[in-house]
Specification:
The protein is an alpha/beta fold. The protein is built from eleven helices and eleven strands. It is about 45% helix and about 20% strand.
């Protein structure tokens, strides 16, 4: 027979083993995120600004969190393909997406599509912005924004833009309406074709990101007159802001911007960890320098700030689309 003393020892040992086993099972089931590779969805082809941003972010998250953050390009349908894949993914933190401003107008662009914060996705943080400039071809007798206003009111201008309903399209039309400019719209497929057409003298003005126009600005065939942001751009600090000249406030901030999203239902601890780690990455001088080389100014936020910013931009865009009578239904 087993003595009472030995029985108690065995009982205590079994209890300890059971406790350790439960802790082990718990650790295996919840783990320390991430325990395996994470997908970063991008709704553009490789080489696009959003893709490059995602790769820079993924590289540093891989180093910090010791698991691969793998870019998965899903281009097409104005990024809808990638965003729908995100919204249907498991909310475990192993599928994320780097999105841009176009996602704010999904319900207006696609009939019957909802794309609401904390319902169809969870915002993690804003990632950055690509400031836009009022730009003109250098052959025009214009060197300042004031001269542009005076010249435009007495002329018919060809306005180039990268696509119907894009931020540069809406911002350019809003500026034209505010100034009473007689415009002829000339659409292109992307910002770089717009810049190239301006350099060739085919269009008179556009709202251009610096990176898409940089070589042509440096060659002197395109002039940047003002940046549509509340502060001057660090790479071109001599160019004034729109606020300094009274550019309509409704177009301020209508620039390409980027945000990190997760599927709806993401656990709060994972969302908090991702927000913290991404914000630390965006503080790194080397990351800020690399992003500036593609025209993006690094910026971060809390999840609540990201959601608030998203909805404020949506409201602004919807108002302008209605005022300017722009239809973007697909």
């Amino acid at each position: 027979m087993v003595s009472k003393k030995l029985f108690k020892v065995l009982q205590a040992t079994l209890a300890l083993l059971s406790s350790l086993l439960m802790q082990s099972v718990s650790a295996q089931s919840s783990g320390v995120y991430p325990e395996r590779p994470v997908r970063l969805l991008v709704g553009f082809q490789a080489g696009a600004a959003t893709d490059t941003l995602a790769r820079i972010l993924g590289q540093h998250l891989t180093e910090r969190l010791k698991q691969p953050f793998v870019i998965e390009n899903k281009p097409g349908a104005a990024t809808r393909i990638a965003m729908e894949a995100l919204s249907k993914a498991s909310p475990d933190g192993y599928t994320l997406a780097v999105a841009n401003a176009v996602t704010t107008v999904f319900p207006t662009m696609f009939a019957g599509m909802s794309f609401e914060p904390n319902k169809d996705f969870v915002p993690i943080t804003v990632l950055g912005r690509s400031p836009s400039f009022v730009a003109v071809k250098a052959s025009l007798p214009i060197t300042t924004y004031q001269e542009f206003v005076a010249f435009a009111k007495g002329a018919k201008l060809a306005f180039g833009h990268p696509g119907n309903g894009t931020n540069p399209h809406v911002a350019g039309l809003a500026l034209g309406k505010a100034l009473g400019i007689d415009l002829v719209e000339v659409p292109f497929k992307g910002n770089q074709p717009v810049a190239a057409a301006m350099a060739a003298g085919e269009i008179d003005y556009a709202m251009l990101e610096y990176e898409s126009a940089r070589p042509l600005v440096e060659r002197g065939v395109i002039r940047l007159l003002a940046v549509t942001e509340p502060k001057r751009y660090s790479l071109r600090p001599s160019i004034p802001t729109g606020r300094e000249f009274g550019i309509p406030s409704e177009i301020e901030g209508l620039t390409p911007w980027f945000i990190l999203l997760a599927p709806p239902g993401l656990p709060a601890p994972v969302a908090s960890l991702l927000n913290r780690e991404v914000r630390e990455v965006l503080k790194m001088p080397e990351v800020q320098e690399r992003l500036l080389k593609i025209g993006i100014e690094a910026e971060s936020s809390t999840a609540l700030e990201a959601s608030t910013y998203f909805m404020a931009h949506r409201a602004k865009m919807n108002t302008l689309l209605e005022q300017l009578q722009i239809s973007i239904k697909n």
